[in-house]
Amino acid sequence: MGVVERDIDDLPKNPANYTALTPLGFLERAALVHPTRKSLIHGSVSYTWQQTYRRCRQMASALTKRGVTFGSTAAVIAPNIPAMYEAHFGVPMSGAALNAVNIRLNAQTIAFLLGHSQAALIMVDQECFSLAEEALKIMADETKGKFKPPILIVIADENSTEYENFLETGDPYFAWKRPEDEWHSITLGYTSGTTASPKGVVLHHRGAYLMALSNAVVWGMNEGDVYLWTLPMFHCNGWCFTWTLAALCGTNICLRQVTAKAVYSAIANLGVTHFCAAPVVLNTIVNAPKNETILPLPHVIHVMTAGAAPPPSVLSAMSQQGFKVTHTYGLSETYGPSTICAWKPEWDSLPPEAQARLNARQGVRYLALEGLDIVNTQNMKPVPSDGKTVGEIVFKGNAVMKGYLKNPKANEEAFSNGWFHSGDLGVKHPDGYIEIKDRSKDIIISGGENISSVEVENVLYQHSAIFEVSVVARPDEQWGESPCAFVMLKPNVDASDKVRLAEDIMKFSRSKMPKYWVPKSVVFGQLPKTATGKIQKNLLRAKAKEMGPVKKSRL
């Protein structure tokens, strides 16, 4: 009897040829390949990759001894300190999911998400202790003992006895296990929504692995690069760069507070090669006082920006100072950045203004993303690549979340028609690059015409007196809505005559944009922001509404 040949696709998986993908193995490899290389530097504290691997295994072991394992959630409330980085490996090594909490949320919101996720353990930085304590009291009152109160571990920058004692209870050689299924949850993050109940975004090991490697490839990073943590690790797990740095055996420079002076100091003294930041941080860097900078830069500094559409003027200023900026775009639901404005060599010969304009686009899909398009939401058909027709940006693939925790209705809406719906509106250019025009809720409809607040802001950023600006809709007696500009002036601007300044801004606007785009009202002051630097337009819209409608007599 002869041997029956199997079909080419009939060969089975086995333990020798198939393993579930997880970024946790990057840390094990880094400790093997570069055991003595610096993994983390934070002030006077530093660790090697071998030490970090041991500390993360100790954390996983200590968590497991306390019953925090598969099916559990462990929360961390801390800024960019070593313990936060360690938790990105230690918590999932125990089998639990990490919830890195936004430290700028109020106690009420933190209480909601701790209760919603049923956190079994919380590690909290000493600086955030009172916030966590208040949140736990609120949670206890609201849940009325429905589940066991979480274990609380206090951490701090140096000599944190409680946190170190917690690690000491764990085994530095703990035999952590890879997930049997790469669909297993690795992290839980909450959207910085405007409602009292943010949505819990659940991410899996497969997506984290693929996105961590995609970060390195699309950005052209090299082994041993030195990365400055200007981006909060609690925001989309630091856009997955927590795991990317382990894959590259690089060095993490932790930064508790982000200032232009601290950024330039790290570049000068610690050899920083890369950092990520929202456009608002870039704006702070390019407008820093000369005595806080180190220009010209000692070497090329690569910067990745996302979180909001960066004004071309800011991109141009960064380029002129020697920073090489890569523009990306994504959401919490897509592991952070999942599109990139991939730079084309032929753009090198273009004028700086044209380069900045092209780099302000959101670009093309990441390597780990299988589908990206802009569609007409009425029929889900792709919009033409004309750079004019507006549609919704949609995603598909491994770089999309598992779903929202305990929220089937939101999942049904988000995943309708086989795509993840971003809620962002954009256009598709003839070269296939996408460009955001606005959030659907941020479009201003004036006299029946749609106005992109982003495009108005991009023009206003060119005004010499404006440091930051956000444009929202204000009720208008004649047009229904009209643009209202909230402006923060540069520090050196004489703000004594705000009426004259407002008139000057409007005059400037009339010379640069269509008449119906021109803001009919200008408000000066600080702009409210989220922890990741996004301007909170919902609060500005509420303020504009409180101001009442623009009268017909006004220009």
TrEMBL record:
**Its pathway?**
Phytoalexin biosynthesis; 3,4',5-trihydroxystilbene biosynthesis; 3,4',5-trihydroxystilbene from trans-4-coumarate: step 1/2
Q: Which GO terms describe its biological process?
A: phenylpropanoid metabolic process
Natural source organism: Penstemon smallii
GO MF annotation, one: (E)-caffeate-CoA ligase activity
**In what residue span(s) does the AMP-binding enzyme C-terminal domain sit?**
455-534
Q: Which PANTHER family match?
A: ACETATE_BUTYRATE--COA LIGASE AAE7, PEROXISOMAL, ACYL-ACTIVATING ENZYME
Classification from the root reads: Eukaryota, Viridiplantae, Streptophyta, Embryophyta, Tracheophyta
Q: What is this protein called?
A: Uncharacterized protein
Task: Domain (AMP-dependent synthetase/ligase): give its ranges.
Answer: 27-405
Which NCBIfam families does this one have? PRK08162.1
The UniProt family comment states: Belongs to the ATP-dependent AMP-binding enzyme family.
* UniProt keyword annotations, A-Z: Ligase, Phenylpropanoid metabolism
Q: Which SUPFAM superfamilies is this protein grouped with? A: Acetyl-CoA synthetase-like (SSF56801)
Classification via InterPro entries: AMP-bd_C, AMP-bd_C_sf, AMP-dep_synth/lig_dom, ANL_N_sf
